[in-house]
Amino acid sequence: MKKLILSFAVVVIAFTFLSSTEIRSNAEEKDKTEIKKEKEKKKKKKSSKFFKKKEELEEVSIEDLEELGVYRPIKEYPESMNKFFGPNKNFIMRTKKAGAYMSNNFSRTKIWAQRKPGNLMKAMAMYEIFYLGRLRENKGMLERYKKNWPNKYFRKKTDESAIRSLKGMNKGRKKMRAALGMDLELPIEDAIKRFWVLGEFLSLGEPKKLAELSPEIKKRSKILQDYKNAIAQLKGKLEEDAEKTEKKATETK
Asked: Is residue 130 within 8 Å of residue 173, measured between CB atoms?
């Protein structure tokens, strides 16, 4: 009887050991499969992000360089702008000061911009100087790209990245000028003068605090502003599509 009980106990222990080993083995195998799937998922996600980013990069053409313009020193500044910059006539130092002024004023709230429209207009003049400074910094890259286009060369991707950055800045510059009826053909001195003089004029008057608006008027104002923003976005998209269509038509010819 004792032998029978002992034998039964051995069988139970062996079965328990084998079962636990099998369960553990299955669990480990499952974990390995899950880890492998997770790695493949992350790899696929990373790969898709890479290709998506690569596809989203805007193409660069030789025509883009013509629209960006070329660096040339500014011949004349408005008198009061010279006072703002001080005695230091070094263009690099003036570019840095223009960038700081521009950044400080463009980053303000909408309410502040309404109170200080003159500062905002002057910041647009500073943007022209800052953009010209970027053209100066990337002068070598632009010349190298133009010289080697359309062939591949060692620093082509770096040069194209700089050109894309300048294209983005130039689009902003184009919109700012268009707001005052100017285009990119206008010499930079004239654009700076117009922005700056208008900015000084707008700074002459002190804005008065208006009476508190009713909730209904505020609501209507918001709806009107949303409508204006939607129209502006639509206009920008139509212009962008028109440019792409024109570019494709030129390439086809």
From this structure: no
